[in-house]
Design a protein that fits this description.
486 residues; alpha+beta; Ubiquitin-like (UB roll); Fumarase C, Chain B, domain 1; Fumarase C, Chain A, domain 2; 3 domains; three-stranded antiparallel beta sheet; 10% strand; globular
């Protein structure tokens, strides 16, 4: 029997539907009946039949017509939002949060797999996993190592040995021994207490990278994670069930504790979670809609899930891959620009007046080495205390702030991409002024690529959409593909 998850105000309701030929209005009224039944004051609703509402998809916020039949517009386990007339939209479904990229909007469940062993994953593979191009599975060798590691940890617990993070507290409480009956609660509370990030959530692509990289590290068999829990994480990844992970909050001390805690919290069925089917919804409902159960943490597993540098590393990997991609395309764009200006008249020997800025020296331009030495000296002489504040009751005296560094690196790369997108648009516009002359065949292909998404400017118009469209081409490395044919 089909079942739908309906969000009304602060409640999520599971509504079964015996007859899929019922219409959307029937689904809304059925959900309202259940909502009123669960509220002592009927939720302020006097009569369900007199209540006006609209029904939207949780993902994409598409408005559903009240007269459409359910079987025509919804699939089993779909998530919808019911907005009662006069209510403000739930903050869970504000379109600007978290911001859906063109990659997210175009997501399709992949059919290919990448086998993880904890050692051979490349940054290119990681970015492709983030883009949803592959599912994950473990190698037999990795599974064997994970089982061996967990057997050792279970022996420690069984023999009541005192080992940090397994049978003790953390930080200031490292010398406090925890009874076996409390070990599960210890791990769950560790995750909950460190889920203290702030800001907008990571995009689905970056959360996929974070989850994939954590799975890869755990596949090494060094953490004591159980194979059951690791398989549950893989199933969540393959179903694109992604926890709400705020982008701010990590100091990079014992790793990215806050973002990884948020990642684990969703897998535990707490907090919020995103999937292509549901959009943002309560984690327990998202997991249930995909046939998954929340993870039940065993001794040491909370620590195993959150103690790592996967946010720093995954964002850093994305920055490296995007920097390399835009560097390759920058040469193509420079060639187009140079082709536009080569016919411009210049005074004889003009290049002697400024050779460092001449087009043939573009690849050699750099920051003045004296400036680099000066800024380096300033950095080396900074006092460590105000920069690296102690934390965890002074048990940790250095924090890397690597999460901020990774986000900053991504922002710098994005700025370069946007500047080059504008230059590419200008170069293509310059070609319009040189017609009927033509540039080289590979550059003509790049020009045609740009013209497939942006028309020539023949009068003033709103340019931001044009810049964004070309920026997407560069993100997808389509200029390189067109130019090099691969």
């Amino acid at each position: 029997m089909p079942r739908f998850t309906v969000h009304i105000r602060d409640e999520w309701l599971a509504v079964p539907c015996r007859d899929a030929t019922n219409n959307i209005h029937w689904l809304g009224q059925e959900a309202l009946k259940r909502y009123v039944k669960n509220k002592p004051d009927n939720g302020g609703i006097k009569a369900v039949k007199d209540t006006h509402f609209v029904v939207r998809r949780c993902q994409s916020l598409g408005l559903l017509d009240a007269d459409d039949t359910i079987e025509d517009v919804l699939e089993d386990n779909d998530f919808v939002e019911l907005a009662i007339e006069g209510d403000t939209m739930s903050p869970d479904f504000i379109p600007s949060e978290p911001g859906v990229s063109h990659l997210t909007a175009a997501y399709r469940e992949p059919g290919e797999y990448i086998s993880l062993d904890g050692n051979s994953l490349t940054s290119t593979d990681l970015v492709n996993l983030g883009r949803g191009r592959y599912k994950i599975k473990l190698t037999p060798e990795a599974e064997k190592k994970v089982v061996q590691s967990r057997d050792l940890l279970d022996t420690i617990v069984k023999e009541n040995k005192v080992v940090y993070g397994i049978t003790t507290g953390f930080g200031k409480f490292a010398r406090t021994v925890i009874p076996v009956s409390k070990l599960k609660e210890l791990q769950e509370n560790l995750v909950r207490s460190h889920s203290a990030g702030v800001g907008n959530p990571l995009s689905p692509e970056r959360t996929r990278m974070l989850l994939a990289l954590r799975i890869n590290v755990l596949a090494k068999g060094h953490s004591g994670i159980s194979l059951e829990t690791l398989h549950a994480m893989i199933q969540a990844f393959n179903g694109s069930c992604l926890s709400f992970v705020p982008e701010k909050g990590t100091v990079g001390a014992s790793g990215d504790l806050a973002p990884l805690s948020h990642l684990a919290l969703g897998l535990m069925g707490e907090g919020r979670m995103w999937s292509p089917k549901s959009g943002w919804a309560d984690a327990k409902y998202v997991l249930e809609a995909h046939g998954l159960k929340p993870i039940s943490l065993k001794p040491k597993e909370g620590l195993a899930l959150i103690n790592g540098t996967q946010m720093i590393t995954s964002l850093g990997a994305e920055a490296v891959e995007r920097a390399q991609a835009i560097a390759r395309q920058a040469d193509i764009i420079a060639a187009l620009t140079l082709g536009d200006i080569h016919t411009a008249a210049s005074p004889p020997r003009a290049d002697r007046s400024g050779p460092s800025a001449s087009a043939h020296c573009w690849t050699l331009i750099t920051i003045h080495p004296r400036l680099q030495r000066a800024t380096g000296s300033v950095t080396e002489c900074r006092m460590p205390t105000p920069c690296d504040v102690v934390l965890s009751a002074a048990t940790e005296d250095h924090v890397s702030m690597g999460g901020w560094a990774a986000r900053k690196a991504l922002r710098v790369v994005e700025h370069v991409e946007q500047v080059l997108a504008i230059e590419l648009l200008a170069a293509c516009q310059g070609i319009e002024f040189l017609r009927p002359l033509r540039t080289t065949t590979p550059l003509e292909k790049v020009y045609e690529l740009v013209r497939s998404v942006v028309k020539p400017w023949i009068k003033d118009r709103f340019m931001s959409p044009d810049i964004e469209a070309v920026h997407r081409l560069l993100l997808d490395q389509k200029a390189s593909v067109k130019y090099y044919g691969r």
